[in-house]
Amino acid sequence: MNIKKKLYLNIAISVILISILLLSLFVESNIIKKENEKVGLASNIKKSVSDLNVLLNDYLTGPEKRAEKQWHLTYNSGLFYLQNAEEEEEEEELEIELVERIREDHVTMGKLFADLVENKEYEKKLIKSNVSKEELSLTIVLRERRVSQLLLTSQSIVSSANLLENRIFSRLDNTQRTINK
Q1: How far is CA 22 from each of CA 16, 70, 153, rounded to the nearest angstrom?
Q2: Pseudo-torsion of CA 26, 27, 30, 34, nearest 10°?
Q3: Are the beta carbons of 81 and 45 closer than 8 angstroms?
Q4: Residue 8 burial (CB < 10 Å; 0-12/13-18/19+)?
Q5: How far is 134 from 164, CA to CA, in rounded Å?
Q6: Does the pTM exceed 0.90?
C-alpha cells in the first residue's frame, strides 16, 4: 500500500468514526431531552395542583366568579398536562399507574369543586329565604366536608406527582450515568 492509499484510508476511517461519534451524541441528547421533558411535565402537573389549592383557598375566602373562573382555567390546564403525560410513549408501568391515579383524582377534584360551587349557591338561596338554622348548618357541614375532600384529593395528587417526578428524574439520572460511561 502506498502512502496515498494509506492517507485516504486514514481519512475515511476518521470520517466514519467522527460520523459515528456525532450520531451517538445526537441519539443520546435526544434521549436526555425526552427524559427532561417528562420531568418538566411531572413538575407542571404538580404546579397545576398547587395552583388549584391556592385558587381553592381564594374561592373559599371570597367565593367570587373570578376565583371560580381561574380555578376552572387552571383545572383545564392540569387536564392538558395529564393528557400529554398519557400520550407519552415508553412509559414504565408504575409511571402509567401514577398518571392514571393522578388523572382520576384530578377528575374527582373537578367534580368536588363543582359540588362545592353548587352547594355555595344553594347556601346563598337558603340565606335569602330565611330558612331555619338547622337546615343552614347542614348545608355548611356539607360544604366543609367537600372542602376536606378537595384538600385530601389534592394532597393525593401532589403525592402521586412527586412520586412520578422522582421516578422520572431517577430514570433521567440513570440514563445520563449510562451515557457518560
Answers
A1: 10, 47, 47
A2: -170
A3: yes
A4: exposed
A5: 45
A6: no
Would the CA dihedral through 11, 12, 18, 22 be positive or negative?
positive
- 62-97 confidence digits (pLDDT tens): 777 887 888 888 888 888 888 877 776 556 677 778
Rounded Cα–Cα distance for residues 93 and 28 (Å) = 23
Would you list the DSSP string of the chain? --HHHHHHHHHHHHHHHHHHHHHHHHHHHHHHHHHHHHHHHHHHHHHHHHHHHHHHHHHHHS--HHHHHHHHHHHHHHHHHHHHHHH-SS--HHHHHHHHHHHHHHHHHHHHHHHHHHHHHHHHHHHHTT--HHHHHHHHHHHHHHHHHHHHHHHHHHHHHHHHHHHHHHHHHHHHHHHH-
pLDDT per position as a tens digit, 29-71: 888 888 778 777 778 888 888 888 888 888 778 777 887 888 8
Task: Yes or no: say if 167 and 99 are a contact pair by the CB < 8 Å rule.
Answer: no
